[in-house]
Amino acid sequence: MLCYNVRAMVTKRQLGIVAIALGLLAVLGTVAVDFVGAGKWGGFGPLQRIGIGFGIAASIVGFILVRLGDRPA
Q1: 8 Å CB contact between 3 and 64
Q2: d(CA 62, CA 22)
Q3: Of 23, 51, 55, whose CA–CA distance to 38 is shortest?
Q4: Domain count for the chain
Q5: What is the rounded CA–CA span in Å between residue 37 and residue 22?
Q6: DSSP assignment of the chain, as one string?
Q7: Which of 13, 23, 18, 19 is closest to 65 using CA atoms?
Q8: 8-49: per-residue pLDDT in tens?
Q9: What is the distance between the alpha carbons of residues 47 and 73, in angstroms, rounded to a whole number?
């Protein structure tokens, strides 16, 4: 029986793409909640601002990771 020690390597570029996707999803989801009107009040509340801030921060980190290339994460 042959056993291969194959390790799936995640690169910084792949991790960056995932971070960008999750960050954009967080920003779009936060904005979409306001358009749908899920809540009594209109406008952006403090939690929505925090969500958008974290989404933008995750996207920025993702762009930095993408630029670092195909080195292992």
Answers
A1: no
A2: 9
A3: 51
A4: 1
A5: 22
A6: -------PPPBHHHHHHHHHHHHHHHHHHHHHHHHHT-SSS-S--HHHHHHHHHHHHHHHHHHHHHHT-SSB-
A7: 13
A8: 788 999 999 999 999 999 999 988 887 777 666 767 788 889
A9: 31
Q: What's the domain range around 40?
A: 12-67
pTM over 0.70: yes
Are 59 and 30 in contact by the 8 Å Cβ rule? The answer is: no
In a domain, 23, yes or no: yes
Whether 21 is in a domain gets the answer yes
In a domain, 5, yes or no: no
Any domain includes 1: no
